């Protein structure tokens, strides 16, 4: 089975929390779109000759803020329940499978790597899955809603804005491939850190007998440095993609503003 489909099957075990999370993100996206319309109404009021400020605009902003807050909390909280539920189930199933494996398997694999799969990898995988679903649902609803809203205002300028979409898709694809590659490297690097640390703790008497403290210290420092390096590469890739996308969007918005004004 495809890994993504398998992860989604775990998500379906928590249908109620997932459903409430979806509702929360829909409310959050709707409030953001309403806030855009509220700003448009305020600008229209400022440019008009009206002197009486509508109480409905004041109340609307309060309700928008309340709706956005409720949507943000419920969407993120219930999606976290799904994520932690996946972690729980993955760890339990992995441990049950691991405990039944023959001795030769444990002889052929480092204990640190095995422990790392239960403690670190499960958290990373489920976290990535829940964050991906969260981003897809929350930003997806917001994007669709804003597109519909913009089309209702001016469909020609909206089409002009969509010119950047293929370029953004390419950047997301390239960044996603690199992030997946780095995630696998980080998994191995973290396993090495766990393995070296567990060896140092379990074999502490032997290390002292052979005066191997410096050797083990160097091993751990090297493994720890490799893990740090890979994590920094991951952060650089993930944080570089966002400003590049924002630059493309800003350029397209500038073009739209030029033709609109």
Automatic annotation (TrEMBL):
Cross-referenced InterPro entries: ABC1_TM_dom, ABC1_TM_sf, Type_1_exporter
Gene3D superfamilies: ABC transporter type 1, transmembrane domain (1.20.1560.10)
Protein's name in the database: ABC transmembrane type-1 domain-containing protein
Gene Ontology molecular function terms on file: ABC-type oligopeptide transporter activity; ATP binding
TM ranges: 55-73, 136-153, 159-176, 240-260
Claim: Phosphoprotein is one of the keywords in the record: no
Xref: Pfam families: ABC_membrane
CDD domains hit by this protein: ABC_6TM_MsbA_like
UniProt membrane topology term: Multi-pass membrane protein
Domain ABC transmembrane type-1: 19-261
Keywords: Membrane, Transmembrane, Transmembrane helix
Subcellular location(s) per record: Membrane
Keyword Transmembrane helix in record: yes
GO cellular component: membrane
């Amino acid at each position: 089975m495809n890994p993504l489909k398998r992860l989604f099957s775990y998500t379906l075990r928590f249908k109620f929390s997932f459903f409430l999370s979806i509702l929360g993100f829909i409310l959050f996206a709707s409030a953001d779109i309403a806030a855009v319309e509220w700003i448009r109404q305020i600008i229209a009021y400022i440019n008009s000759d009206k002197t009486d400020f509508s109480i409905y605009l004041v109340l609307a902003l309060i309700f928008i803020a309340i709706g956005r807050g409720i949507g943000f909390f419920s969407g993120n909280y219930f999606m976290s329940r799904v994520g932690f539920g996946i972690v729980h189930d993955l760890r339990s199933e992995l441990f049950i499978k691991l405990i039944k494996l023959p001795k030769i398997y444990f002889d052929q694999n480092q204990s640190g790597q095995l422990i790392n799969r239960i403690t670190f990898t499960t958290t990373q995988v489920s976290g990535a899955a829940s964050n991906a679903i969260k981003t897809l649902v929350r930003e997806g609803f917001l994007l669709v809603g804003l597109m519909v809203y913009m089309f209702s205002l001016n469909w020609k300028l909206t089409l002009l804005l969509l010119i950047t979409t293929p370029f953004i898709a390419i950047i997301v694809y390239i960044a996603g491939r690199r992030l997946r590659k780095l995630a696998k490297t980080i998994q191995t690097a973290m396993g090495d850190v766990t393995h070296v640390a567990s060896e140092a703790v379990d074999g502490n008497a032997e290390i002292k007998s052979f005066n191997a403290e410096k050797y083990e210290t160097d091993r751990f420092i090297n493994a720890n440095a490799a893990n740090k390096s890979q994590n920094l590469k991951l952060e650089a890739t993930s944080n570089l993609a966002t400003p590049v996308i924002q630059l493309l969007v800003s350029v397209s918005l500038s073009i739209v503003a030029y033709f609109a004004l």
